[in-house]
Amino acid sequence: GESVGLHLPTLSVQEGDNSIINCAYSNSASDYFIWYKQESGKGPQFIIDIRSNMDKRQGQRVTVLLNKTVKHLSLQIAATQPGDSAVYFCAESPANQAGTALIFGKGTTLSVSS
Amino acid sequence: EAGVAQSPRYKIIEKRQSVAFWCNPISGHATLYWYQQILGQGPKLLIQFQNNGVVDDSQLPKDRFSAERLKGVDSTLKIQPAKLEDSAVYLCASSFGGRNTIYFGEGSWLTVV
Asked: How far apart are the CA of A86 and the nearest CA of chain B, in angstroms?
């Protein structure tokens, strides 16, 4: 079936750098997208979401960009800190499914060195 | 505000045994989800409840997995009999419903030996 995928399984950055994590989705019926952060041994933690009527949304140190033309989603983290080290998942919610559950990709592991 | 509560946090069982996981969602959240997360993968939906009704259980292996949310609040996920490939983290999540933010619990880690 269709699912969300991520371009890179791992990303290594230096503390203070900006990080960009990319995600490609394939379900054109998806109209709601979310980024989650998952630290080792913990459940996914909500970071930011965006709906399909928007191209960009900003939070604290994070920005999500949505390009519906090429079905691409990205998460930008400004001034990356060691505490940002985790696995990042993008997830989509197709409008044409039975419920409102999320479909997750495989995740990108972000490693931040100081 | 209390988050999604799950128990037990860790469980080791032998194959063919049974196991049950419990979840208490965030207060007021009508929608409850159970996800399975195999090591190195993203979470995969098992079942979604809206209050005490099932919305989507299309990916639940019904020959061995069952779930209930009888009073529309807490929920139990059961596996019987367990197989080796059921080793995973079982995540419970909840939301107010619709396209509102979905919050996850810390998960119940299952190892089947």
From this structure: 12
In the prediction, which pLDDT does B1 show?
63
Work out the percent of chain B whose per-residue pLDDT is above 70: 99
CB A36 within 8 A of CB A45: yes
**Which of B31, B43, B44 is opposite residue A44, by nearest beta carbon?**
B43
Residue B105 neighbours by CB distance under 10 Å: 25
- Mean pLDDT for chain A? 91
Distance CA B41, CA B37 (A): 6
Contacts of A91 in chain B (CB under 8 A): 42
Confidence of residue B95 (pLDDT cuts 50, 70, 90): very high
Collapsed DSSP state (helix, strand, coil) of residue A11 = strand
pLDDT for residue A7:
63
Whether pLDDT at A3 is above 50: no
> Is the Cβ–Cβ distance between B45 and B35 less than 8 Å?
yes
Number of A to B CB contacts under 8 A, please give it.
Answer: 61
Please name the residue of chain B whose CA is at the shortest distance from the CA of residue A49.
Answer: B101
